[in-house]
Design goal:
The protein is mainly alpha-helical. Helices cover about 75% and strands about 0% of the residues. The protein folds into two domains: about 45 residues, no CATH class; about 110 residues, no CATH class. The protein has a two-stranded antiparallel ribbon with strand order 1-2. Helix 4 packs across helix 5, helix 5 packs parallel to helix 8 and helix 7 packs across helix 8. The model has no long low-confidence stretch (mean pLDDT about 85). One of its GO terms (biological process) is protein retention in ER lumen. GO terms for molecular function: ER retention sequence binding. This is (thale cress) hypothetical protein.
Length: about 170
């Protein structure tokens, strides 16, 4: 539990200061390696047959979009645009896997709902900033955020129906 709290504090520090100063990237890479190698049972329980979404094409498409549609053609802006486009569609493999499996366990459903809620809160923030800040227009982020939210809409509908009727969440095939 304290490890989870430490990660949340780290994320809060990065968010609040908008900086990674004082944080070792190498430590984070080593921790990622620790968790990837420590839990081999996770790999054994992974359902490769259902998780067949070809994500490499999504990465390539988002990178090309980042090169073509950016606010300023600089390395930093291209990578920023790429990350925004990629975030908008990063949930697709998860949604496809859940649709193929049909049944969604409670924690996985909540995981997806909270990822979508995060984007919904961003949209509220954009609306607020539009009315309170001069020249607030990050059209790439706004359009991508709307696309991302639209991708969640179908899942949210079935999640709501499941919650309302107190039944197990099932997605149509």
């Amino acid at each position: 539990m304290s490890h989870l709290i430490s990660v949340l504090i780290l994320l809060l520090k990065i968010y609040a200061t908008k900086s990674c100063a004082g944080i070792s990237l190498k430590t984070q890479e080593l921790y990622a390696l620790v968790f990837l190698t420590r839990h081999p049972l996770v790999r054994r329980s992974y359902d490769k047959d259902l998780d067949t979404f070809r994500h490499q094409y999504v990465v390539l498409a988002c990178f090309v979009l980042g090169l073509i549609l950016n606010e300023k053609f600089t390395v930093q802006e291209v990578f920023w645009a790429f990350s925004i486009y990629l975030e908008a569609v990063a949930i697709l493999p998860q949604l496809v896997l859940l649709q193929r499996s049909g049944n969604v366990d409670n924690l996985t459903g909540q995981y997806v709902v909270f990822l979508g809620a995060y984007r919904g809160l961003y949209i509220i923030n954009w609306i607020y900033r539009y009315f309170t800040e001069d020249h607030f227009t990050r059209w790439i982020a706004c359009v991508s955020g709307l696309v991302q939210t639209a991708l969640y809409a179908d899942f949210f509908y079935y999640y709501y129906i499941s919650w309302k009727t107190n039944t197990k969440l099932k997605l149509p095939a």
